[in-house]
Design brief:
With 538 residues, the protein is mainly α. 47% of the residues lie in helices and 3% in strands. The chain is built from 23 helices and eight strands. α1 crosses α2 and α13 runs antiparallel to α14.
């Protein structure tokens, strides 16, 4: 039986590493050692952090100043600024030590938009809106997201009028963003909603239009939002199908009542148990496993969905219950191997940020070197690892999002194919050279492995090759490598050189000598570790 009972006792390194890999983009040996001393309850509370999260501002390299919320709309260099924004978002994800940026990406893939569809300001507002509800009320977020300027443009609701209804957003609101279809029970008729419901919802959503930058500000969030155009709104009452208990929503006759009508609609959809279950299943597949068996549906999904509804869609408690559960730590049965820990394939985002953080790779500071930072992240992180790895960052190919999160039965196996595998296996090399394997000039942002090993404080005695490899590899993988794998990694570092020679070379370097010799071995080791099958797993 899968159990939501709280995992008791201190986590230890293995389970602390598991929590940090799944719950953040920011984990390294130091954080793993810190969290190892915590109970699951304390550890998760530290990750959940504040309920209200606010994003920093991206910096324009041309001016050295933020360009978002500066009182004017950007009309020049818009294409470059949009690209800078993607780089900025990646930087925000790297350094966040809480769950918030992990949840920002979760909500992005749940409320899909495409950054290519609008200005950087609208993309920033969309991300800022999400960030304010990562651990908050998902029902409120649904109302706010419906009025988001980027969403209004992306799914065409800004052109949805009473004389020319556009059903695009209404359809995706049901199918992708909230309740889901459920099994089809007839032509245009699904278990959870009907085609007539889509038509009715589209009528209800008429007159919700995108606005010019800074024209309309949401009083609750301070973020620019869409506008209400009563002249384009269908003012009739709207009656939904039996799937929604034939609910009738009174049509707005005055502009101030249009948001009430929207609120009534969202409340109706979120009153359905299947809406809560859809969110819980997505949380489960994001944090735990892609496999939702009948047991998981009964023992995990159903009670968590009930908790979510009981909390009126305040998601904080639901996430905490999941991440503190015996099930999450694979401690709810007699065999605690291979079911949860190491059961997910790292997304390109998780692979890239996790690797750079584990090896404590330094990046240029956004405040002082934005141009250098954005060049590096664009050439290596976004253009190669993410885009070439099957994750067009903040710009998925369709409204369903990134295929690895929804495409049955493959799910995360979709990250591996003939087109994506090269970028994954070239990551270690690019971290060492600062240069894309696709060509072009180097960014001069590289990892200093000897310095990392010498100065990080994580390694007892780097001159002892066996101990060094064991300590470096221990928390990189979901399970501690066996003796044969440790021997392989040792051989990769030594590359035919006797262990005594490594000891001599390291001691010489530690006493102020050249790092050249030890760097060769450490680069070989890093490549072998990151190339391994075990490292590709989360």
């Amino acid at each position: 039986m899968a159990s939501l009972n709280t995992f008791n006792g201190k986590l230890g390194n293995r389970l602390a590493a598991h929590l940090l890999r799944r719950g953040t983009f920011n984990y390294n040996i130091g954080r793993i050692n810190e969290f190892a001393a915590y109970t699951a309850d304390v550890a998760v509370d530290k990750l959940l952090g504040p309920l209200s999260y606010s994003l920093d501002q991206p910096i324009d390299p041309a001016t050295g100043q933020p360009w978002i919320n500066n009182g004017t709309a950007t009309t020049t260099n818009a294409g470059a600024l949009k690209n800078y924004l993607r780089c900025w978002a990646l930087n925000e994800m790297k350094f966040d030590q809480t769950i918030n940026m992990k949840m920002v990406f979760f909500l992005h893939k749940s409320w899909v938009t495409n950054a290519n569809e609008a200005t950087s300001e609208r993309v920033y507002d969309y991300l800022d809106l999400i960030s304010k509800y990562t651990l908050g009320n998902y029902k409120t977020l649904a109302k706010k997201m419906t009025m988001d300027n980027l969403m209004l443009v992306y799914l065409n609701n800004t052109s949805n009028t009473k004389t020319a209804p556009n059903e695009n957003y209404a359809r995706e609101f049901f199918e992708l963003f909230t309740i889901g279809k459920g099994p089809q029970i007839g032509p245009g008729n699904y278990t959870n909603y009907t085609e007539d419901d889509v038509v009715t919802a589209a009528k209800l959503l008429t007159g919700l239009r995108s606005s010019t930058r800074l024209t309309v500000i949401d009083p609750d969030t301070g973020i620019s939002t869409g506008r209400l155009a009563l002249a384009n709104h269908n003012t009739e009452d709207k009656t939904f199908s039996a799937a929604f208990q034939n609910t009738k929503i009174k049509g707005a006759k005055v502009v101030d009542d249009m948001l009430r009508e929207l609120s009534d609609f969202v409340e109706m959809v979120f009153a359905q148990k299947e809406t809560a279950k859809l969110y819980v299943r997505r949380l489960y597949r994001y944090f735990v496993s892609q496999n939702i068996s009948a047991e998981i549906e009964s023992d995990i999904v159903t009670p968590l969905a009930a908790q979510l509804m009981n909390d009126n869609y305040e998601v904080h408690n639901t996430i905490k219950m999941l991440l503190t559960s015996e099930h999450f730590y694979d401690a709810d049965d007699s065999d605690n191997k291979d079911e949860i820990l190491g059961a997910l394939i790292k997304s390109p985002l998780e692979l890239y940020l996790g690797s750079t953080n584990y090896f404590e790779m330094a990046w240029p500071d956004q405040a002082t070197q934005p141009a250098k930072l954005y060049t590096h992240l664009n050439r290596l992180g976004i253009s190669v690892i993410l885009d070439n790895g099957g994750m067009s960052f903040l710009a998925p190919y369709d409204v369903a999002g990134y295929s690895a999160y929804y495409q049955e039965p493959a799910y995360d196996k979709s990250w591996f194919n003939a087109n994506t595998i090269i970028s994954r296996y070239k990551l270690a090399e690019m971290m060492q050279t600062g240069k894309s394997y696709l060509g072009g000039s180097a960014t001069n942002v590289v990892i200093n492995l000897p310095q990392f090993v010498k100065n990080s404080g994580h390694f007892t005695d780097p001159a002892d090759v066996s101990l060094l490899v064991e300590e470096l590899a221990e928390n990189m993988f979901a399970e501690k490598p066996d003796n044969d794998r440790i021997s392989y990694f040792i051989e990769s570092l030594l590359d035919g050189v006797p262990a005594e020679d490594w000891k001599y070379e390291w001691e010489a370097y530690a006493q102020g000598g050249s790092s050249e010799e030890v760097n060769i071995g450490l680069k070989n080791l890093m490549t072998a570790l990151m190339y391994s099958e075990e490292f590709q797993m989360l």
